Amino acid sequence: MRTSVTPAVRRAVLSVTAAAGLAVSGFAAIPAAAAPASDAHQGVSFTRSCADPLPGHLACNALRVTGGTVKAHAKGLGGARAARAAGSVSGFGPADIQSAYNLTSAAASNGAGETVAIVDAQDDPNAESDLAAYRSQFGLPACTSASGCFTKVDENGGTNYPSPDSGWAGEISLDLDMVSATCPNCNILLVEASSATTQDLGTAVNQAVSMGAKFVSNSYGGSETSDEASTDSSYYNHPGVAITASAGDSGYGVEYPAASPYVTAVGGTSLTADSSSRGWSESVWGTSAGGEGTGSGCSAYETKPTWQTDSGCSNRTVADVSAVADPATGVAVYDTYGASGWNVYGGTSASSPIIASVYALAGNPTASVPAADAYANTSALNDVTSGSNGDCGGSYLCTAGAGYDGPTGLGTPNGLAAFTG
Fold first, then answer.
1. Which of 149, 234, 272, 327 is the most exposed, fewest CB within 10 Å of its CB?
2. What average pLDDT does this structure show over 235-244?
3. Helix ranges (DSSP H) in 161-236
4. CA atoms within 13 A on the CB side of 292
5. Which domains does the chain show, CATH number per domain?
6. What PANTHER family does the database record attribute to this sequence (predicted)?
7. What angle is formed at CA 369 by the lines to CA 408 and CA 175, rounded to 5 degrees?
């Protein structure tokens, strides 16, 4: 059994700061653990969505903002009415995600017929109705079980859903909403594992692939163990399927399954609108003090894939690419199971489904391991060159710089070219 990562940051209510922003409101009390920790980003408080896991279980990487102000304020899609409605929602929305990553045209025309699978543990009884509320708010086309756009199954493909859990329900809402924001025309398959063990979550991944999903997002992780290579072959080795995995929310350090050479390991950034030609800027989500922020580093056990060429780690390096994850520049999420509706979320649980959905916009993968495509198309990514997620002696493994670095990988999407064959 795999032992989960549970440093202090994962057991505490954390604080982050936004330099300017709009008030966050409407948050419900989902139980969270213990004493607060602080970092350089004072002003916005947030907590892990999922409770601390039992030994042998994995943890979801969703962080729910509980107070303060955030920089992000959702823009509307679908005309003036939707834009006015979106104005009351804090957190980045579909228009922001698509603009930041140069996806607006692709999102309008691509994705039809593609299925993005979301793998999570436990049940969210309100998943479909909450998804409908999110999509309506932003003027996105409806995605329902009746139309065949939305499907929810248990880890064996049936309807014997696991027991509900408010923390994982928040994670599920985050995942479904990020697929909707990034690829509005995609079908969505939610596979709910019976528990948060590696075996159950891995079984859910296999189920998603068996049902035809070519894009599978995994927003969870735990500590590496010496048997993970066998786990790779059992659950994550699906040639031609883009499987994404969150790099983690505890700062510098490697989680599994992000360490698997068969997945695209997704790191996290802080995303800010600015006056540049792009209209946006990004830095590493995290601080040099460590303890919170995107995960990264050199795997202790996984062999380096042939397509990864950095020289400071002889094994697999995390991450490959990245997207927004900082709760202080977080995303809008609608969740009513244990929450009161609109929330702002962050964590690499946001960036993983975003990247899976970018793959879906680009079409069916051609590489055996789709992560390889980004390494062959580095010019089609936004290189993130500032920030750190911990103390590693200034190494690229925890410090951003020109070209590849651990916290943000090769960078963030700039259109689809880095995600095609």
1. 234
2. 98
3. 166-182, 198-210, 228-231
4. 30
5. 8-419 (3.40.50.200)
6. PROTEASE S8 TRIPEPTIDYL PEPTIDASE I CLN2, TRIPEPTIDYL-PEPTIDASE 1
7. 55
